[in-house]
Write a structure and sequence with these properties.
about 575 residues, globular, 16 helices, 4-stranded antiparallel β-sheet
Length: about 575
């Protein structure tokens, strides 16, 4: 049995040291409570914001007049489909304070003319809501501020499961991956803020199948918050609706609106009707609103699709290059330099990437509180609001504020109570079984088998469809895969056990996805049902909630909150 070598206690435990986690830690500390961040890597360089970002969704009164203007633009953006409006309004109303703080802390939010400058992800002639900034140093800056504020940071600790009782969440079980031999840490807390990021590796990398880690966001983000919250009964929402990103083909990297150029079909025609020549202020929004075009044109023979920057001025090309550095695309810049790829002369092929989990997951209220007492969530793992980097920053702050102001009302369980918990004893035995084997299969085999099941039986559009028979078969094979994994996979060190734990979380996410896809008896977006080919207008403003109650699956439709 794996040894529990540390027992820790804190008022607030934050799981995940990305942008949301660091911002939550700062606002929680302002409430005078003890805060501990458990991060599987190192907060200085972890999460999808590890290497930078250059667009920050926000509302600045002097630029936008009123919040309704930015709210309307948000609804038409790549973030706007699945959100409860009150969460968006609170986000916008608090976003400028975060922008000002970041700028004062040393993250340059005024990159042009020493002013708040909005550009990219925009329609010509419409208000722009994405602030252009230089986020290359954001993780370093936020980590330093958290340490100065007295936040305790526990790097190289991967949380495996939450502990809970009849009063809600009580703590967590973490795997120490700082040494080769795995050991466990039990953490007792009054409240938990889950900020574990988006979910990759549920489907195979679309442009390079078989290469698990060639994805556009952090490949170690595997929706742990969704899976672990699900296992203790939290409500999960919108998991059946797929989401794709897009960017340079084979070199899977985000930041498509950092590019100053227009999209063209394989024959040279413009892909979209919005611009004939891109500018740094607007860009070409076609890639946001018709994301599936990159795949559809390959299927109908009109592809491939190219990013064309050949009409850019030298000044715009230099500006674009600096934006790529802000976005963390230095590896891509180096590759272009090495291979003598010059965007002023060469077209760059773009491709739609594999589905990943972002803006679907844990359902929260306007205070970032989940349906489980004491459990909060923020960032990409939230299912009823999405704003990517800005959403992580602002709702991370909100989660820390709300949890910090209320956590002292919650009981801190004793070491003995937590250790006696039947649930956590079972989970310790479960994870120990993989390490105690003398030989067996590798975790990668389990992850790749999961990806194959998801691709064959719960495929996303635009090119593939789902159906009742496919989804039921997928659930059957997924159950079989779980048993095979338990009986056959061997993890000889802490690192491989961590990777397997990520894969097990993804299996839960796959199950939730298939269960919800079965219940959504319609075609909507990239959720395409062969047996329900129409979009049901009665579900236009409905969210599907899924949760476990006494090990039984519960589902319920609810109204999207519109105001």
């Amino acid at each position: 049995m794996l040894a529990v070598t540390k027992n820790l206690e804190t008022d607030i435990l934050i799981i995940g040291g990305g942008i949301a986690g660091l911002m939550a830690s700062l606002s929680a500390r302002q409430q005078g409570v003890n805060v501990l961040i458990a991060e599987k890597a190192d907060t200085r360089r972890s999460g999808s914001g590890a290497s930078g970002n250059d667009h920050f969704l926000c509302y600045i009164p002097e630029k936008h007049k009123n919040v309704d203007i930015v709210l309307n633009e948000l609804k038409n953006s790549l973030f706007g489909s699945n959100m409860d409006v009150p969460l968006a309004i609170r986000f916008f109303n608090e976003s400028f304070n975060v922008v000002k703080d970041w700028h004062n802390w040393g993250i340059n939010m005024k990159i042009a003319n020493n002013d708040w400058t909005f550009m990219g992800h925009a329609f010509p002639g419409r208000p722009r809501i994405f602030l252009k900034y230089d986020g290359h140093n954001q993780k370093k800056v936020l980590t330093e501020r958290a340490k100065k504020a007295g936040v305790n940071i526990l790097n190289h600790h991967c949380v495996l499961d939450l502990t809970y009782d009849e009063n809600g969440v009580t703590g967590a079980l973490a795997l120490d991956v700082s040494q080769k031999t795995p050991t466990l840490t039990l953490i007792r807390t009054r409240s938990v803020i889950f900020t574990a990021g988006c979910g990759n590796r549920l489907y195979p990398a679309k442009v390079t199948p078989g290469i698990l880690f060639n994805v556009s966001d952090c490949p170690a983000n595997t929706s742990a918050a969704i899976a672990q919250s699900w296992r203790i009964g939290a409500k999960i929402v919108n998991m059946e609706l797929p989401n794709h990103h897009a960017g340079p083909c084979y070199f899977s990297r985000g930041g498509k609106n950092t590019w100053i150029g227009v999209y063209r079909k394989g024959n040279g025609e413009l892909l979209g009707p919005f611009v004939t020549k891109a500018t740094r202020e607007v860009g070409d929004i076609t890639g946001d609103i018709w994301n599936s075009a990159f795949t559809e044109l390959m299927l109908n023979g009109q592809g491939p699709t190219f990013m064309d920057c050949t009409d850019d001025s030298p000044e715009d090309l230099a500006f674009m290059r600096e934006g790529m550095k802000s976005e963390g695309l230095t590896g891509f810049i180096n590759y272009m330099d090495e291979q003598k790829i010059d965007p002023s002369r060469h077209l760059v092929e773009f491709r739609q990437y594999e589905p990943y989990i972002v803006g679907k997951g844990v359902q929260v209220d306007i205070n970032a509180q989940s349906s489980i007492a004491g459990l909060y969530a923020a960032g990409d793992t939230v299912g009823n609001f999405r704003a990517d980097m800005a959403g992580a920053a602002v709702y991370g702050r909100i989660a820390g504020l709300e949890a910090g102001s209320s956590c002292m009302k919650r009981k801190l369980v004793s070491c003995e109570e937590q250790a006696r918990c039947e649930w956590i004893q079972k989970r310790i035995a479960y994870y120990s079984s993989f390490y105690e084997k003398q030989t067996g299969s590798d975790w990668k085999e389990a992850n790749q088998a999961l990806q194959q099941i998801m691709t064959d039986y719960a495929p996303p559009g635009p090119e593939k469809v789902r159906s009742e028979s496919l989804l039921n078969a997928g659930l059957h094979y997924l159950s079989h895969l779980r048993n095979l994994t338990l009986n056959q996979v061997y993890t000889p060190c802490s690192h491989t056990l961590m990777r397997l734990a990520e894969t097990l979380d993804l299996m839960d996410c796959g199950e939730i996805t298939m269960l919800a896809a079965l219940e959504r008896k319609e075609t909507r977006g990239l959720h395409k049902r062969a047996d329900f080919q129409f979009t049901n207008p009665l579900l236009d403003n409905k969210f599907l909630q899924v949760w476990k109650q006494a090990e039984k699956i519960q589902m319920e439709w609810r109204d999207k909150v519109m105001k």
